[in-house]
Design goal:
By secondary structure, the chain is α+β, with helices and mostly antiparallel strands. It has one domain (6-64). It is built from two helices and four strands; from the N terminus they run βββααβ. It has a four-stranded antiparallel sheet with strand order 1-2-3-4, with helices on one face. Helix 1 (35-43) packs antiparallel against helix 2.
Length: 75
């Protein structure tokens, strides 16, 4: 089910970093997230509820600069 709060997220198992981008465009990296939790987040029916209950305020995070998509016409 699409989330009305979370646009997308990625998980980096080697560093245990979970990057969450919100529909507002803000991007956060959550540190030391166990792979089992990231997998449960991926399969959760309600991503927003899962995030609020199990990730937000449970893991250290930093705000990242959103990545600009590459412009194929840029020089």
């Amino acid at each position: 089910m699409p989330s009305s709060v979370i646009r997308r997220f990625t998980y980096k198992p080697r560093s245990r970093a979970l990057d969450v981008e919100f529909v507002s465009g803000r991007l956060y990296r959550y540190a030391d997230v166990p792979p089992e939790l990231a997998d449960a987040f991926r399969t959760a029916f309600s991503k927003g509820r899962f995030f609020n209950a199990r990730i937000r305020d449970h893991y250290t995070c930093v705000e990242l600069e959103p990545e600009e998509p590459e412009d194929p016409w840029a020089l």
